[in-house]
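Final report, closing paragraph on structural work. Over the funding period we assembled a curated collection of sequence-structure pairs, and we close with a single example.
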Amino acid sequence: MINVSEYVANEIDYIERYGVECDKQDLKYLYGLTNKDIETIQEYVERDDELYQTINETINYYLYHYIEKKKESE
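Its predicted structure, as stored:
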């Protein structure tokens, strides 16, 4: 499942490195998230059945396409 804490850290890193000025305004918000905020968002993500289904379908798609491409290259 998606780790929200890691996602936030990656988002901050990306914005600091490559973000345009309008993106950088989000840094204040991202830095202001508390551990409790992140835990709450994590709970929302984990309870989102539609998101879970989308992630499963995406993993399934790439898993089997990877296997097929691997078979073709052998």
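Helices lie at 4-18, 21-24, 26-32, 35-47, 49-73. The chain has one domain: 4-73. We thank the funder for supporting this effort.
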